[in-house]
């Protein structure tokens, strides 16, 4: 693996050129406005400051920024392409769904399509540790949400994903 895929320590993240730091943040969350806010907030005194700033920046974004982040995710049950950190983390986070039996995988694919038709964006869920059946149940449950409640639910799931990925970026997750 190239050095760009190794964890960064906090000092390196704080002192990296802005474009490099932005790329690292975009690997954690694909919302450009969020990544820009994180770059501007440096230097961070500790990891807690990184994660609290990330959460605050996320919840201060507009819906279009959330949608930008959601669009970077593969559908649940599908594998992200590529060798970059975002793709590797996505595959790792969805590892439990990779071994789903065909009937669960087919139901999950159908639920993904229904969800996208209803809400206009990919189903976002904190997949780490969840089986395909659990994610299918969550998707079906969230299909009952109204659009405003669902965008907030998806944003909350993205916030959890971002927190995990920031910790991985810094070598503590």
Can you walk through the features of this model?
Mean pLDDT is 88; it is low at 1-5. The chain has a single domain (3-169), classed as Oxo-4-hydroxy-4-carboxy-5-ureidoimidazoline decarboxylase (UraD-like). 66% of the residues lie in helices and 0% in strands. With 173 residues, it is mainly alpha-helical. It contains ten helices and no strands.
- Overall, the morphology is elongated
SSE-based structural type: mainly alpha
Percent of residues in β-strands: under 5%
Rg from alpha-carbon coordinates: 16 Å
Number of helices: 10
CATH superfamily, please?
Oxo-4-hydroxy-4-carboxy-5-ureidoimidazoline decarboxylase
CATH architecture: Orthogonal Bundle
Q: Which CATH class is shown?
A: Mainly Alpha
| Stretches with pLDDT under 50, minimum 5 residues | 1-5
Number of domains: 1
Give the proportion of residues in helices.
55-70%
Task: Give the mean pLDDT.
Answer: 88
Describe the main β-sheet briefly: none
Features:
elongated, mainly alpha
Layout of secondary structure:
Blueprint: H1 10-15, H2 18-28, H3 32-41, H4 47-59, H5 63-71, H6 85-93, H7 95-98, H8 102-119, H9 132-142, H10 147-169
Helix pairs in contact: 2-3, 2-10, 3-4, 4-10, 5-10, 8-9
Give a short summary of the structure.
With 173 residues, this protein is mostly helical. The chain has one domain: Orthogonal Bundle (UraD-like). It has helices spanning 10-15, 18-28, 32-41, 47-59, 63-71, 85-93, 95-98, 102-119, 132-142, 147-169.
